[in-house]
Amino acid sequence: MKTADFIIIGGGIAGISAAAMLSKQASVIVLESEKQLGYHSTSRSAAMFIRNYGNATLRALNASAEPFFLNPEGVSDLSLLSPRGELLVADEDELAAFSEYAKGSQGLETLTADEAVEMVPILRKDRIAAALYEQNALDIDVDRLFQGYIRLARRQGSKIEVKQQVLTIERRGSSWHITTADQEYLAPVVINAAGAWADEVARISGVTPIGITPMRRSAALIPAPSGHDITSWPLFGSASEKWYAKPDAGALLVSPADETPVDPHDAWVDDMVLAEGIDRFEQAVTISVTKLNHSWAGLRSFAPDRTPVVGFDPQADSFFWLAGQGGYGVQTAPALSCLTAALCLGQKPALGDDIIAALSPIRFR
Predict the structure, then answer these.
(1) In terms of CB atoms within 10 Å, which end of the chain has fewer, N or C?
(2) Model pLDDT, residue 233
(3) What's the pLDDT at 41?
């Protein structure tokens, strides 16, 4: 029997960053079912920090996380962010979505079609009815962030165990008793950071699921357009998220920006969805996609209101939710891990009460 103050189920960016923050003052065990950490979503992230991405609660989390990315004390000696920028273009049918994104956003610059094409020369000028540029959208070094959190958690005594698929979770007295195929664990508090499997973890714990829905997101790498140096191009995409693209290791990453509800699984590409997304991309640019270097898919898990779920379940003693991060898990990890540690340790969170309430699972009970 292995014991700790907190057992975290899920070894992605959410669970590992929470372990790093909690283990400063408590004993922590992280259980990951796969043979490697961050396998399903963290390693398949588009790796961008976009301050204006998401609803009002998510934008507040982004703002809270930004200072850490710039000065990631204990995780890295250097900033985890580097210049990229984001360019959003809209055709006539997307002007409503364009206006909605701009509402409440900060640091956006309106561009003409000519200026947008100057920035990304393969865009079709005749298809651009409006354009916005966010200079402060930045690349995140996800691997350095993730590995830094792993090192910090272990240095502080966290036990991180892979290939430990949780089979049973049972409340016994004042502790949770957890079994895997070859081990037993005991802790007063369970933190559910299981991503796409968060509702399943709740279910086997006897806790009412919240309705966390995994959604597949596909992407492909295509060769860089001939005759263009894409190194300094921003991430660019449609205002209504019909597609997006960004430079990636000398190639161009293109995604249909799909959100297909699926059961939790090791996601794979749906060829038709990817083909339709690439067709939408081709309609907006002057090049044709004739080759895919590589394609893949990942899972983005959303609560019904598309806001993360962070806090103790009011119906289950000492069962803590850290789930529903959707496509925002990496860029909100610094803020949500600090909030998790504060709530679990009975300390005053840095976030405002309104944000804490917006994240709490109480809203679903």
Answers:
(1) N
(2) 98
(3) 81
How high is the pLDDT of residue 104?
80
CATH number, residue 25: 3.50.50.60
Tokens at 88, concatenated: 């959003």
User: Nearest 5°: phi and psi at 13?
Assistant: -60, -35
Q: Which among 213, 203, 211, 214 is positioned nearest to 319, based on CA atoms?
A: 203
CA distance 114 to 289: 23
Residue ranges for the chain with pLDDT beneath 50: none
* Closest residue by Cα to residue 22 from 207, 183, 188: 188
The torsion angles phi and psi of 93, rounded to 5 degrees, stand at: -75, -10
- CA–CA distance, 344 with 290 (Å, rounded to integer): 52
Decide: pTM greater than 0.90. Answer: yes
DSSP reduced 3-state for 183: coil
Asked if residue 198 is part of any domain, the answer here is yes
Q: How wide is the angle at C-alpha 43 spanned by C-alphas 41 and 46, nearest 5°?
A: 80
Q: What is the DSSP string of 40-108?
A: TTGGG---EE-TT-SSHHHHHHHHHHHHHHHS-TTT-SS-SEEE--EEEEE-GGGHHHHHHHHTT--SE
Q: Are residues 282 and 207 in the same domain?
A: no
Q: What contacts 9, CB < 8 A, 6 or more positions away? A: 15, 31, 166, 178, 190, 191, 192, 193, 194, 201
228 and 284 both lie in a single domain: yes
CB atoms within 10 A of CB 305: 14
Residue 142 in 3-state DSSP?
helix
Cβ atoms of 165 and 34 within 8 Å: the answer is no
